[in-house]
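ESCALATION

Customer reports they have been waiting on this structure for their group meeting. Please prioritize. Original submission:
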Amino acid sequence: MRKILVGAVVVLAVLVAAAFIGPQFIPAESIKQDISAEVEKATGRQLAIDGSLNFRVLPSPGVTASGVRLSNAQGGSVADMVRLRTAIVEVALFPLLSANVQVSRIVLWEPEIVLETFADGSNNWTFAPASGAEAASDSGTGDDKEPSAAPSVRLDDVVIREGTLTYRTPDGDQRIEKLNMTLGAESLQGPFRGNGSLIAQGFPVNLDVAIGAFVEEKATPVNVKVSAGGAALSYSGVLSGAPEATRMSGQVALKAADLSATIADVSGAAAPGALRGKPLELEGKLDANGEAISLNDLAVRIGDDSATGAVQVALGETPRIDIVLNLAQLDLDRLLAGPAAGKGATGGAAAGSPSSGAAA
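Update from on-call: job pushed to the front of the queue and completed.
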């Protein structure tokens, strides 16, 4: 019995040593070439790993790559669509033994992503397999062979640190910086979750997103909350008809502790002083598709004043906006007696006069 135990300990020690030492002998350069070839076959783009490529078996299988680049589409403004300083991927060992890929952790350090749309309507995030790749994949799917089922994939923890996203169109750029997010997905079809922060066009924003599973011919629940400064925008509803006839419908709410400060933060321009210190509450039923956006059952409260109504936006080359508001009462004296009206009268129109009201 003692000899059996000693033998078992020796075997275990050898296995542990092999798990730690074995990855050191893996030919990283050869594997880089293999990975690049497979990515190009699937996407038609070139993947380069300029830095190191390291493997680990214990305590969980994983790989770390540095200096990762994915080439851009032909005609792109920059050479690379994606650049990563470091990427770390770890998977759970035991689910992997049953062909279930449970990614326990992905960390992407300083990703730089450029999304572009071109003048002809095409974009750089639509990938096409390399020439001959589709034919090669189809050659083994005859009647005598059954297609193998794709493995189940689960993403437990995807972390993005200090990311940058640029959306480029012929009309200009939109840029997101300091992107720090934590994401997760129970499968590649969802449900999905995410929360974190970013800076959009110089404006700090916090995000909290939950999206249900995408099931054919069924609506997908969506819950989104975006907050910045003293304002918070939330949406709770469903997404349906994707991708051909995408439609969103649900409840939307906007709250701001100080409407004047929110307008100044978003637009960069000073808001009317009459709004200073006044909270905003807005609620309504949102219905949006590729042709129109409507906000019905609208309820708006600014300070002590409230209104109901609806907003209709027709999208197209020349967008059209129709707004209907019903106010139970509007106290112009109180509105024009805001801080700006009292301080801004420096000769000319007196506070509360028609001209000062028009300026406000």
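Sent to customer with the following note: Helices lie at 2-21, 28-43, 93-97, 133-138, 259-267, 332-336, 339-344, 354-359.
Escalation resolved.
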